Amino acid sequence: MDYVIMIGSTLSGKTTYSRKNCQNHEFVSLTDLNSNRKDEMSLIEEHLKSGKNIVVDDTNLTRKIRKTHIDLARKYSAQVIGIYMDTPREVLARRRWIRPDNVDMIVINKMLKQLEIPQKDEGFDQLHVIRYHVE
Q: Fewer CB near the last or first residue (10 Å), C or N of the chain?
């Protein structure tokens, strides 16, 4: 059973990447649950109890937040897979104009300041870094 933790700022490509590459997984997004972390964790636990693969499609910017997910995954003996979307600021700035809700750069910059680059020793069984190269 996989417990995939997407990591990256808004507009980094987490949803696009995970929808393309994790088709046999249940998707859980804090945004879809009105930013209610308790509801998010309850839904994840329901999926784990049913033996389902899951993707947590949130920013998961800090070690503290990721630890909560890693601990829950371990409780159900799930394989913990981190996917960090390493997307340059200039790409995020361009993408914000494409989205209907037009995310302000102040929000993106705040997220980038909060971001703690994930490390395998946090408890990931696998940690993948997806780098977006500007051409």
A: C
What whole-number distance in Å separates Cα of residue 79 and Cα of residue 84? 16
**Tens digits of residue pLDDT in 27-72:** 999 878 888 889 999 999 999 999 999 999 999 999 999 999 999 9
Cβ 72 vs Cβ 1: under 8 Å: no
CA distances from 69 to 64, 88, 123 (A): 9, 26, 10
Domain of residue 107 covers 2-131
Contact 89, 45 (CB under 8 A): no
Total count of domains within the chain: 1
We report the CATH number of the domain holding residue 101 as 3.40.50.300
Single-letter amino acid, residue 89: R
CA 94 to chain CA centroid, Å, is 21
